[in-house]
């Protein structure tokens, strides 16, 4: 967490290839692979295959898209910044039909903002300020780590399997899943 030793790591999702990533890199950046390393790089960002959970566990701060990854990040106890952007039509429909205060699972569970959310508008300077705050504001970091610790402490062994069973039962009742 020292400013002169920051390291940026991007775990490549299991369903993506390095060619998929290469297609998303804007000019003038390019993907490189140093001869003495097993990883790829985009400037100062190290790209690794998979290992997202291990990366979250070893990180001081994680920047991620909203989804189950926010819950994983909360469970391992790593402060995070949540970002999500949809195409205009999907965002419009979501805003019309979905009425929630937050989009990240961690904030929904706490019913308050534990992880700053940037939805649709992704201002680089504000995201950078948020990451810096999570790295260097010791009081804020302590409060967030405490909150994440309470979530982890409240989880019971087998809770995921129990929740999945309840969900499957409800889906079967509604005829959305075959009973067999």
Descriptive notes:
β2 (31-32) and β3 (40-42) form a beta hairpin. This protein has helices spanning 18-24, 52-58, 68-76, 88-97, 105-110, 124-136, 138-154, 159-173, and strands spanning 8-12, 31-32, 40-42, 45-49, 62-65, 80-84, 116-119. The strands form 2 sheets. The protein has a 4-stranded mixed beta sheet with strand order 1-4-3-2, with helices on one face. Strands 5-6-7 form a 3-stranded parallel beta sheet, sandwiched between helices. It is built from 8 helices and 7 strands. The model has no long low-confidence stretch (mean pLDDT 85). With 180 residues, it is an alpha/beta fold.
Biggest sheet strand line-up:
1-4-3-2
Spatial separation of the terminal alpha carbons: 52 Å
Gross morphology is globular
Helical segment count: 8
Total strands: the figure is: 7
Major beta sheet summary: 4 strands, mixed
Radius of gyration: 19 Å
Helix content class: 40-55%
Estimated share of beta-strand residues: 15-25%
Q: Which structural class do you get from the secondary structure elements?
A: alpha/beta
Overall residue-averaged pLDDT value: 85
Q: List low-confidence stretches.
A: none
Order of helical and strand elements = EHEEEHEHEHHEHHH
């Amino acid at each position: 967490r020292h400013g002169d030793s920051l390291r940026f790591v991007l775990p490549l999702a299991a369903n993506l290839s390095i060619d998929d990533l290469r297609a998303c890199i804007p000019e003038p950046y390019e993907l490189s692979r140093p001869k003495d390393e097993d990883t790829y790089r985009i400037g100062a960002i190290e790209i690794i295959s998979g290992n997202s959970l291990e990366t979250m566990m070893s990180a001081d701060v994680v920047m991620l898209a909203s989804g189950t990854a926010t819950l994983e990040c909360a469970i391992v106890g790593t402060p995070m910044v949540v970002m999500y952007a949809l195409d205009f039509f999907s965002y419009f429909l979501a805003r019309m039909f979905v009425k929630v205060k937050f989009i990240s699972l961690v904030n929904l569970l706490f019913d308050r903002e534990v992880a700053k959310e940037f939805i649709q508008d992704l201002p680089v300077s504000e995201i950078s300020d948020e990451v810096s705050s999570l790295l260097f504001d010791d009081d804020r970091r302590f409060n967030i780590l405490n909150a994440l610790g309470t979530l982890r402490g409240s989880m019971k062994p087998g809770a995921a399997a129990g929740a999945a069973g309840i969900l499957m039962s409800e889906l079967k009742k509604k005829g959305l899943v075959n009973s067999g």
